[in-house]
Amino acid sequence: MFGDIIKRLRIAHNFSQVQLAKELTVSKQTVSNWENNNILPSIDMLIKISKFFSVSTDFLLELDDRRYIEITGLTETQLAHIQQIIRDITDANI
């Protein structure tokens, strides 16, 4: 569910509910309500969350399990480094 996804993303990025709320300019209670599946964010907020965590809105809504990494503006060398890191992590089964 949406709340589980938000909580996993928040924890993976080492944010408390208070810190995430501040980043998204909402209250801590709002983040808590999302995580407890009491309320859903507005469409505008859903887009803001997707950009903040670099995931698609489809990922947040469980319509697609693929994630993406924002690469706009990176050089070919930087992209090659990222691809190598991904291969290293995948090969190590981390």
Tell me what you see in this structure.
With 94 residues, the protein is mostly helical. The chain has a domain of 59 residues: lambda repressor-like DNA-binding domains (434 Repressor (Amino-terminal Domain)). It has 6 helices and no strands. The longest helix is centred in the C-terminal third of the chain and has 17 residues. The protein starts with a helix and ends with a helix. The mean pLDDT is 89.
Describe the sheet with the most strands: none
Helical segment tally?
A: 6
| Mass-distribution shape | elongated
For CATH, the homologous superfamily of the domain at 2-60 is named as lambda repressor-like DNA-binding domains
* Helix content estimate: 55-70%
Radius of gyration: 15 Å
Extract low-pLDDT stretches. none
Percent of residues in β-strands? under 5%
Summed over residues and divided by their number, the pLDDT gives a mean of 89
| CATH top level class name of the domain at 2-60 | Mainly Alpha
Strand tally, please? 0
Q: Please state the second-level CATH architecture of the domain at 2-60.
A: Orthogonal Bundle
Secondary-structure element pattern, one letter each: HHHHHH
Distance between the termini: 25 Å
What class would the helix/strand composition place it in?
A: mainly alpha
User: In CATH terms, what is the fold-level topology of the domain at 2-60?
Assistant: 434 Repressor (Amino-terminal Domain)
